[in-house]
Every structure is written in C-alpha cells, then in structure tokens.
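Journal club prep — side note

Before the paper discussion, L.F. wants everyone to see what a predicted structure for a comparable chain looks like in token form. Sequence:
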Amino acid sequence: MTPGDPKLIEIAALRDEVARLTEELRQVKEAFFGELPFLEREAPALRLTPTERRLLAALYRADRLLTRRALHIAVSGIEPESHEKTIDVLLSKLRRKLKPHSVDIENVWGEGFRMGASGRAIVSRWLGAANAEAA
C-alpha cells in the first residue's frame, strides 16, 4: 500500500471514528454513571464509598426504574455474573446510610429500583448546596 491508497484512507477514517465514539461513550458514562459532586459538609454522616456514590448517582439521575443489571453496570462498568447479589448488598448499605436523612430507595418487586420523589428532592438540595459552594 502506498500513501493515498483508498484502503489506508478508509483505515484512517475508521480510526478517527473509533476515537470519536470512544470519547462520546466516555462522556455518556460520566454524565449518567459518574459520581455526584457532594460536599462532605452537606451530608457528613453519609460517609459513602465511591461505589455507593455511583449507585446513588445512578438512582438519582434515572427517571425510570433501574434493574439490578443496570445498577450493576452503573457501579462497576461490567455485566453482572448470573444471580450475583452485589447490588442487593450495596442497596442495603446505602439505604441504611440514607435512612436518617429520609432519602428512600423504592423496590418495585420483579422490576427494579428507583429513588422516591422526596429522596430526590433531598439529594437535589445537597447538590444545590454543593454547586453554590463551587461557584
């Protein structure tokens, strides 16, 4: 192959497209599955782990029910093993930490999980305070 060969041009175009799509995927993951910008002083008693923060972010950002599989992908970035109970354990720990702040995570049996409206309002206030502080 020589410079200007149509196959080389096509390969270069494909590499550019892969790079563009990789960056787009990174941005989507960050937007939907990244952590939320909490200030520790807004909810100091939470003491969330990074995984718990990603789980809380996924539940907060979702406008629909999230399945265990979707939550597993949100917190770990990989497909879950069959019948894995990791999300159940994480949800239990997160619920325990959020309960004193009246943030609820609802379980719709057989379908998935979502953050209740009152919990979403509380997390929104935490985020509003965090964003105001950052400005």
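L.F.'s comment for the group: The two ends are 55 Å apart (CA to CA). Keep this in mind when we get to the figures.
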